[in-house]
Each structure stands twice: as structure tokens, then as C-alpha cells.
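Sample entry (997 residues):
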Amino acid sequence: MDIARASIDRPINTWLIMLACLLGGLWGLNGIGRLEDPAFTIKMALVVTPYPGATAAEVEEEITEPLESAIQQLPQLKRLTSRSRPGESIIKVEIKNTYDAKTIPQVWDELRRKVNDAQASLPSAAVASMVQDDYGDVFGIFYAITTPGFSDAEIRELSRFLRRELLTVPNVAKVMTAGEPDEAIYVEISEERLVSLGLPLETVLNSLQTENAVQPGGSIIVDGRRVRLASKPGLDSVGSIEALRIGRPGSTEQISLVDVAQVYRATTDTPDHLILHNGKSAFTLAVAGLSDANIVEVGAAVSAHLQQLQSAIPLGVEIHPVYEQHVVVDQAINSFLISLMLSVGIVIGVLCITMGWRVGVVVGATLLLTVLGTVFFMRLFSIEMERISLGALIIAMGMLVDNAIVIAEGMLINIQRGMRARDAASDASRRTQIPLLGATVIGIMAFSGIGLSSDITGEFLFSLFAVIAISLMLSWVLAITATPLLGHYLFDGHQYEAGDDPYNRPAYIRYRALLVSVLQRRWRTVGVLVLITTMAVVGFGFLRHAFFPPSNTPIFYINTMLRQGTDITETARQIEAMENYLREFEEVAAVTSFIGQGASRFMLTYEPELPNPSYGQLIVRVHDLDQIAPLVETLRKELATRFPQAQIYPQRLMFGPGGGAKIEARFSGPDASVLRTLGEQARQLFIDSGVVVDVRTDWRQQEMVIVPQYDEERARIAGVGRSELSTSSLFATTGVRAGLYREQDSHIPIIARPPPAERTNISRLADRLMWSRAEQAYVPISQVISGFDIEAEEALIHRRDRIRALKVQADPQGNLTADQALRKLRGPIQAIPLPPGYRLSWGGEYEGAIEAQQSLAKEVPVGFLVMLVISILLFGSIRQPLVIWLIVPMSICGVTAGLLLTGQAFTFMALLGFLSLSGMLMKNAIVLVDEIDTQVAEGKPQDQAVVDASVSRLRPVFLAAFTTILGMIPLLWDAFFASMAITIMAGLAFATVLTMV
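Predicted structure, serialized as C-alpha cells:
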């Protein structure tokens, strides 16, 4: 079919296509979603089960094990990891990558059913398990709010007010607050008064629990209607709690609670977590937009609403942005759009210089229409404008003009040979449209591995494949429709010297002579190419390897772990001191600290730390990205000196999926002591290697435990059971939760404990009194126990797929990559003798990269098979495709040289660039080999056809490569795409030379 002639003969159809691309692109730009990075589904949920009073080992055996056994029955399950600590089990459930955002909710419903079914097998003292399926929700608008001088009640009211207001903003899905001071009603009961009155502690606690419990009151029938009898809780104020009447055993006398206790409302002195911002106590406000909303618009609306609320917010309240995704996205998109326009300008400028302004205008117009048409389809297919999709447009920039260059070049040559523009367009298009279509599909399939990958990395990078596929196919359509029409308008009236051989020019003459010389020495040339390729393969082994590069967001973390078991107030004191020290550095713009657990997930790639009172994280924002690396190295040394009691490890934000330590040696097996021994050996080898820093283990230190030795015989005589002993020790230390005080939508715990003067410390523990049912009097605790033992027990027990697993973690030293450090560590670590039943595996960046590469490797053969089939179908034989495919491996020469010279690591993105090179090279080679076949079919000798065809395709092939290379220049300054750009630029430059010789 002569599509070019039809496009010229019926221009209205072509203009409609061009107008659709133009107007559709403008429509797409106006409403397309905008993100910083592409969204990917975090296929994880947490199953949290409190088990008060249990040790970590008991939690593991009685809670974690039965729950994991039930969850393991899910066919969608990919991996189970868990952490058992005293009083709590947390199981992280990870689902297979084949499930996406649409199917995941159904999986979580099945998970809930499994967990609910397993509740019957859990101990009665365990609290019902909670499935947190919002673990992966991203709150990209994140503020810290400081309220100096405000009361705790005012802070809580302000938090509720802000949350309520922001939920009214259009397209806001969730608002989460954290760090507000928790409050409790304390009932401080004097032991001395209890003893003097002969009043059992249990009686007081039971009175508090029953008086405020919600109980059904029944109902009666009145005039045919059933009327409910309401039973309201009796405690509705602190005064009502003080006035609570309590009966004395064996007597009709009643006393008021205030006779034996002081009742007051205050902030709890055992908070779950604390937050600081620039040295001031703070709480955070985290906002998540709807999944299909434009985050830039949502963020602007939230900011505007907060501005409107300023008059309603009390004076002195300050709202500090910790992370504003809409601002970051707006800046990133604008920067990428500038890079995109620069890339377009470079490509058009090169064409105008090398082929004349007419060809430059024709091909440039086709390029602009292709870009706008791609944006149109991106909006139709709900592909957001983000780092990957815009980067894909820049990567494809040079390839988008390939088809148009071939058509325009063919038209120009035909016109110079005397043809009319209409006939020239028809001939150029008819000869090349099928080879160009095949080459375009091959170029698309070169990126199909990442598009078809089911791994989370494939989901993250899917828009790279989608945008390249859309843009390349559109470029072919416009090349055989718009390019001939525009060329017909611009070339037809221009006078060329007809009849002259356009290839009889100095550059072509020298190239022809080179080809003749190479063909005469073909085997010597092949030998040289084989030698160069072999050297490149060897050199490839000297490249640095990495997964994803650090992010260009000017934020880093300082993770701090004090000795396991440290009280949260001590952790807060140390973190506050660190924060004050950090603020002395002029590079630091702001510091927000989270004590007891991590922050809300404000970025997709951020994974919050699980609750731990001895943990703190400082999120540090600097003025300039380049300040992070030297500042981190300085802080690593200085903080270790100033805070020797803390284990401190800075962490950079990273692009793409992943997170956590970059190097992990994971030992699995049944016995905790054996795992600790193996872990200690590995930890020492890590330290001695000199290639890693921040060495640590995830099991942390064991905790000290005071164990009363319960004497059953003496306790039976005294009439005191184990439960009374536990209640007595709990009351004497942290306090007993004796009920709930209900206030509107708040449930405030009622905590019973002794007054400060009587509160037990370790020296007075043996002097406590307990109520004896047998003697109806208080007796010393020494009549119930034979003494106290101090023991060490596991505080954190980690499991992976139901097997105990201990990780030794570290990060690479200095400028080393994780791969370089792992190469040195692997041998010594793997030489550690493992007892039967124990095994070693590697996690961290290595595991993430292997999983991504394996998922990619499963799909790459499909793409390459399609490429091979198309190349065979195009030529109808094996010989020509074989020649074309032999060029592909030689691209490693340019790749190795480019990465070694620039010092860039071979990242996962560089791997994608390397794979995509095959499609780019084959596009050029197909056009060349097809021209050779055409000239052979016209009767030319083989060697003459090779020379003439190569000369005729010299300019389009080199221009296609040259525009691709120059079009990627803006990506050299982007940390995420730099290694990929260098891989493609260097590999394409070298391989293009090979293609033409």
C-alpha cells in the first residue's frame, strides 16, 4: 500500500491526524497526572497482636507461630517476616508481584479471614490481632507542627481540628496525625491507707472496672413499642471517679476512692513515641491524596486551606513542611520539561545543520507532533507525568526521528536525482515503510523485558516501556503520513541540481574508499573486532555495580539505636542532644526527629521503622544536595565520638524500590544462641574487612529481666496466686489499667498505681505488700517468693518464612558500591562453618537486584524472540538477521569504555539501557541490510551493493545515532538516568561505527 502517496493525495486525512496529535497533546498536558516518581503498589500488610506480659519467646511460640501457620495457607503469599518482642507480635505479609492495586484488596480480605480463624488458637490473654493493610499508604504532604506554651489538651484539640478541616479538601483521601501527647487518668492509691483500712487492691480495681463498663440494660414494651433501658457509665469526670464508693470486705461500711487515692488527669509518662522539630516538641500532620488525583493540585489545595485557617489557628502555632510532594513534583516536572525541550531543540538543531533547514523543519515538526501525541495517549491510558515517563521521552527522542529521517532523506535524494516531490515521497516511503515498521517494533521489544516484568521494579519502571512503545509507534505512523506531506509542501518548490550524484561529495568518497579497504581486509577487520570485543568483556568485570543510585532530594536520615531496653525518655534525651548538635551545622536547614518508631510513610521508597523505645530517627534537610555526602561522613565520625553509647548509621534516600541496609548476611536456623554466635563471627569479619561501615545486627542486645521466684507452697499457704503476684508487681511499677474514661470520641485509660513516694524501685521491690485471701490481710511479698533472679532474655526474635533469621547488616565504605564491598566479604563470610540445619543467604541490595534481574530475565527472552522472528520475516531468510544480530554483542565495547571513563556504576537502569541498545542498533542495521538486498535484487554485484547501500544510508544512520546521543545529553545531569544515558550513548556510538563498516 502506498501510504505516502495517499497522504499527499488526500491531505485532509493527514491534517486530521496531525491536528489530533496537536490538540490532544495540549489537552493531555493540561490534565495529565503529575508525580515525582511512578506509583507502585507496596504489597505488604502488618498483622499486629499484643500479648501483654509475655516474653519474646512466648510471643513467638504462642502468637507468631500459629498466626504464621494460618497465613501461610494463602496462595498469594510471597514471603513472611516477623518480629516477636515482649508483649507484641508483628508479622509482615508480602504478596506475590503478580497481584496489583486492583486485586490486592481482595487478598487482604482473605488475609483477615485467615487471621480471624486463627484467633481461637491464641491464648485468652492475647488481644485480638489487627490487620493493617494501609501499611503501604503514602502521605506525600507531611508537616511538623510546633506548639510552644500550649497545654496538652489544647494540642490534642488543635490536632483534631486540623485533621477534620483537611479531610474536607477535595481529593484528600486520608489525614493522619502522630505525636500528640497521650493522656491518662491516674489513680494513685496509697498502700499505707489500703493496709490501715484492710482494703484489698483487687476490690478497688474491680470497682473502677465495673463502674464505667458499658453494659446492656435490656428493654421493655410500652404501648406496643419496645423501649430500651439505657445504662450510662457512672464515671463522667475526675470528680465522679474520686467520689466512687467502695465497700470494705466483711463490712457494710463504704468509703470514697478519694479516701485512699489521689485522682488526676495528666499526660502519660510512658509515651509510645515522641516527635521533635528543630529542638521543639511537635506533632505531625500527614496527608494522602486519592490514587487518581493530581498530587500537585491536591498539595496546592491543602496549602491554600491551611493558609485560610491561619485566622482560626492560635497564635504561636507554627506549621513546618517536612516533605511536600507537590512542591518536589512541580520542581522535578518543570526541570524535566526543560530537559525535554532542550533535547528537542538539540535534535532539530542538528538536523537543520546537517540536512538543511527544510528537512529540519519537516522532521522537527514530525518530532513535536510525536511528543504531543504521546502525551495525549499517556493521559488516555492514565500514565502520569513523572520521572520515568518523561525520562522515557528523552531516551526515545533520537529514536523518534529515525523513521522521519529515513523518509525525508529518501525524498531529498530522489528529488536531487530529478523526481517530483510527490513521486519522491512515494518511492522513499514504499521502499522503507515495512522495514521501518519491523525496525520500530524491534526497538519497542528491546524495552519489553521491563514492561512485562512482574517484579516491583518492573511495576516502578513500567511507564518507561509504555511511553517508548507509544512514542515509537506514533513516530512510524507520522513518518509515513505527516513527513511525506510536509516534505511535499517544502521540497516541491525548491530547486535542486537534478542529475548530480548526491553521493559524489568528499565525505562520501572517503567513506566509500574506507569500505572498499575494509572489504578487501575483511578477515583482518573481523579479527580486530573480536579482539576489541574480548577486551571489552574483560574490562566489563572492572565496572562498579549498583542497584539504584541515591535520590536527588536534599534529605537524609540518621538512624540511632541505643542499647535494647532503653527507656523512651532516655532515647528522647539523646536524640534531642543530637538534634541540637546537628543544628549547629550551617548546611542543615531543618531537623525532624522521631523517637520510638519511624515517621509516617511520606515517600514510596521510605519504610518506617517498627516501634522500639530505644530507636530514634532524625530526618535532616540540607540546603543543597551536594552537601549531603561530606556532611554524612563528618557526622558519622563526630556523632560516634559524642554519643558512644548509641549505634548511629546515616542513610541516604534512594531512587526506586528497596531501602534498609545495603549489605545483609542472613543466618537462618532454630537456636537463638547458635544464630548469635554465627552473627557475631560475621559481624567481626564485617568490621575487619575495612570495606563497610555501620555494622549491626537486627536482633540487637538481650534485655535484663528481673524474675521473682514464685514459691508455690508458701504462696498457697498465704493464699496468693501467680496472677495476684503479677498484678501487684504491675501496680507497683508501671501501673494497672483499671478501665476506660469515655469523653466524646476519646477513650482515656484509667491507670492505678502508688503515689511517687511509694512507687517501687528495684531496691524496694522485695518490701512490697500483697493481699492474702487466707489471712484477709496484707502480707510481705517475701512470703510468696523465695527471691529474685536477674536473667538475660531475647528482646527481638526475627523470623523469615517461619524460620528464625538473624541479619548482620552494614553499608559500603566511602565511594564503594554494595557490590564491591560484597565481593570482598562474600568469601570470608561463606567460609564460616554452619552447623546442620543452618544456612546463610544474602539480603540487602544484592537480593533486591537479583530478584529484579531474575524477573527481567524471565521476560527478556520473549522480547528477543519476537525481535528475532520479525527480523527473519522481514528478510525471509536467516543470513541477513544473523549479520544484524552479530553486531549487537559488540555494543559492549562502547558501554565498557563509557562507564569506565566516566566512573559511573553499572546500575539496573544501565542494564536496561544495555538491553535496549539491541533494538536501536537493529533499527539502523535493518534499514541498511534492506537497502543492500534491494540493490542486489536490482542486479548489482554483492560487494558493489554493500558499498553503494552503505554510502546511501550513511547520513540517515549516523544522524539517527547522532540525534539519539545528543538528545540524551540532558539526562547526564540526572542521577537516576545518568548511567543509562552513558550506556546508550557510548554503546550506540561505537556500535553505529561497526554497523557502517
